[in-house]
Design goal:
By secondary structure, the protein is an alpha+beta fold. It has eight helices and five strands, in the order E-E-E-E-E-H-H-H-H-H-H-H-H. Strand 2 and strand 3 form a beta hairpin. Helix 2 runs antiparallel to helix 3.
Length: about 220
């Protein structure tokens, strides 16, 4: 069976000499592992569709013999050029993709998460803001049954905590820049994602490794 499916690439890796395996978040079929055959050949035509954060309509072949699907065509809707040129925004976008990949089970209904991630990438592309990743993580945890809405926070942060849950992501981007409390709230969200998925977030580890690099003299 071949279907045209809106999807966002959460991650990808090389397999074999010329193929790639990508984790797709689809609007209609949840999270899928999809094989892009031959995309690393010089004449490969679907390479852009297999890159993390790419959004488009994917032509997928569903085999009755395996859970893995094959990408046989597609058309890009967005590649988010602005966020890809800025490292902090790239890391925030990849962090959102990784959180979705870790909290969702394969082929679990995830239309709301698909739309949330699409909104997050669009908000980061439009200018970003230090709160988008935290707000996305809180909304994602709520959608997947792990809400932190009632988690005790210091009284002075209660209003911000509620706003990060309730505001649209574009509105959360306009919140005042975070100080120490902002970093702590973000860390709380990431720790809960890791606890529920039982895996460390690679984007968090990479960002922390950058902070550990000594500044040039």
């Amino acid at each position: 069976m071949i279907l045209n499916v809106p999807a966002i690439v959460l991650s990808r890796r090389k397999v074999g000499e010329y193929d790639r395996l990508a984790v797709l978040l689809t609007e209609t079929h949840g999270k899928l592992t999809a094989r892009f055959g031959g995309v690393d050949r010089s004449a490969g035509k679907l390479k852009a569709l297999s890159e993390p954060m790419a959004c488009g309509e994917y032509r997928l072949y569903f085999s009755p013999k395996t859970q893995q699907v094959r990408v046989v065509g597609g058309q890009l809707r967005a590649t988010w050029p602005a966020l890809r040129r800025d490292l902090p925004r790239t890391l925030a976008a990849l962090g959102c993709c990784e959180m979705a990949a870790q909290l969702l089970a394969d082929r679990q209904a995830a239309g709301a998460v698909y739309r949330l991630l699409d909104d997050a990438l669009a908000a980061i592309e439009a200018g970003g803001g230090p709160w988008i990743e935290t707000s996305f993580g809180l909304k994602l945890l709520e959608l997947t049954g792990f809400s932190l809405r009632e988690l005790p926070v210091p009284p002075g942060e209660a209003g911000l905590w509620a706003a990060l849950h309730d505001l649209e992501l574009g509105e959360a981007a306009a919140l005042p820049p975070p100080q120490a409390s902002g970093r702590r709230l973000r860390q709380t969200v990431l720790e809960h994602v890791e606890a529920h998925s039982e895996r460390a977030l690679k984007t968090r580890l990479f960002a922390e490794s950058l902070l550990a690099v000594p500044a040039p003299l």
